[in-house]
Every structure is written in structure tokens, then in C-alpha cells.
Amino acid sequence: MANDFSSGHPCTQGLIHCWHPTVGGYIDRGRARAGVGFIGGYLVRLIARTVTPSSNGVLVPMRYSYAMKIRRSADGETGEMARSSMEPILREIPESIESQRLRIRPPRPGDGQLLFEAVRESLVDLRRFPASMPWALAEPSIETSEKYCREAYSNFLARRDLPLLLLLKDRDVVVGSSGLHRIDWRVPKFEIGFWGRSSYQGKGLITEGVAAIVNLAFENLDAHRVESLPDDANDRSCRLCERLGFALEGTLRNERVDPNGALRSTRVYAKVK
């Protein structure tokens, strides 16, 4: 449709005041030329760009429709950018999701015993890559596991961090842990981490859980990037990333150091949208 606004038309000088029984606001000259503007805090696309004076002399677009009904942010962001400016604590995130065999939820007060049992059983595997998981070097206890669960739940509620436990769907058994970390809500982007309980490895449970969490990030949290940073020698974690379609973007050489002083390299895998 041709643009009926011209540089000499009074509508293109300064601001245009538009009114509708349910929404009202101003459209600036540049947006008027483009046929879009903000009315009542919503982005509106003008379908007919001709205007007519109302009985009180105010210029009113003859016809317009809502191409997008998304709140305007303070700096003019729209769409997903506007959602990314929302305060993180106000974001709606499901407390629990399910995959075929798993319930996936944040740690909660009272989960310390369940988590302790999974960690204690898996220490040999967890300590293979201390530069990536230094927390596993400490001797676990029910008390420290409970402390972690309470702090993790607090962080989840505040949206500072999104730690998640992987439990069997039919009973309360922790088979692994994952989560979305190092969050940048402006993008949004996340780092996903994961580990599996030793006695449940080789069953595809961690792959299943990580796939569900990645889907949550993209479908529910508007993610544009999810990355994973396994140790370069952690073949199992690297293969999991590749199975789920993560692209290897590169290797950060000598990027970490383990407690013995040995330098470790880190692979950077990512999925983007």
C-alpha cells in the first residue's frame, strides 16, 4: 500500500495525536511515515495512512489494526526485546516439567538427603574433572546438601540462577542434576551444566533431561543462546552436546587450572535461535 504521508502534510510535522475509544497516545513523524507507532503503550501498524480531522480538530487515522500487541519499554524496545527488559523475578517459569521418564524441578528445602545420596555415590566420576566441578572435591554431607538445596531454591525464585534436579518420574530418586546458569536476561542467554548419578549412567536419562531443559529455555524463556562448556577431555559430555545438536564453536585452550596446577582446555558448544 502506498504511503499517503508527504513531507508537506501537516501530519508529518511534529507529533500526531491519535485517539481510539480504548487506546490513545502519540505517534511521532518518523514512525508515521513508516505506518507504525505506539498507541497506549502498544505497537500499532497503520493500515490506512490517510488521516481525517475529528469534530474537535484532532487528526485521527481512518483505519488501523494491531500488528503486534506488545508493551513498549522505556527505550522503545518491542517484541522479545521488551520481554527481555522485564525484571527477572517477575518472569513466569514453571516449577516442574516432565519428560518421558523424568520430573525436572528446582531443589527444594528437604531435598538434602536425596541429593546427598546421589552425590556420594558419584564422587569418583564427579572428581575426574575438578577444574569444571571444584565443588565435588569437598566431602559431601546431608547438612551441606540441604544448605545447597535451600540456597538453590532461593536463587531459582529470584531468577538469579535456575538449578534443576532430574528425578525419576515414578519415585523420588535423583538421577542427576542440571540447570541454566550464568544468565543474561537481556539476550536472553544461558549456560547449561549437567552431571549424572553413576548407577544411572548409560540409560540416556541425562540426555533426555538436558533436552527438556534446552527446550524450556528456547520455548518458555525466549532464549537466543544456550551454551555448554565441558572439559575438552570430557568425552561423555561432549558427545551429549553433539547428540542434542549443539555446534562446537571452538576450544578455549589452557582456560582453567585444576587443583594440582594442570592446565585444562574447555570446549564451547552452543545452540542459537
For the structure shown, list the relevant keywords:
7 helices; 25% helix; disordered N terminus; globular; three-stranded antiparallel beta sheet; single chain; 2 domains; alpha+beta; Aminopeptidase; 273 residues
Question: Can you describe this structure?
Answer:
- This protein has 273 residues and is an alpha+beta fold.
- The protein has 2 domains: 75 residues, no CATH class; 185 residues, Aminopeptidase.
- The protein contains 7 helices and 13 strands.
- The strands form 3 sheets. The protein has an 8-stranded mixed β-sheet, with helices on both faces.
- Helix 3 crosses helix 5.
- The two termini are 32 Å apart.
- The N terminus is likely disordered.
Question: What does the secondary structure layout of this molecule look like, with pairings?
Answer:
Blueprint lengths: L14 E5 L4 E5 H6 L1 E4 L2 E12 L5 E7 L13 H6 L12 E2 L3 E4 L6 H10 L1 H4 L15 H17 L3 E7 L5 E11 L4 E8 L8 H16 L4 E4 L6 H9 L3 E11 L5 E10 L1
Parallel strand pairs: 10-11
Antiparallel strand pairs: 1-2, 3-4, 4-5, 6-7, 7-8, 8-9, 9-10, 11-13, 12-13
Q: Could you give the distance between the termini?
A: 32 Å
Main sheet?
8 strands, mixed
Strand proportion, as a percent range, falls in 25-35%
**SSE succession:** EEHEEEHEEHHHEEEHEHEE
CATH class of the largest domain: Alpha Beta
Q: Uncertain spans, ≥5 residues at pLDDT below 50?
A: 1-56, 58-77
Report the average pLDDT across residues: 79
How many β-strand runs?
Answer: 13
Helix content: 10-25%
CATH superfamily of the largest domain: Gcn5-related N-acetyltransferase (GNAT)
Which fold name fills CATH's third level, the topology of the largest domain? Aminopeptidase
Supply the number of structural domains.
Answer: 2
In which order are the strands of the major sheet placed?
6-7-8-9-10-11-13-12
Total helical elements: 7
- Sum up the overall morphology in one term: globular
> Would you identify the CATH architecture of the largest domain?
3-Layer(aba) Sandwich
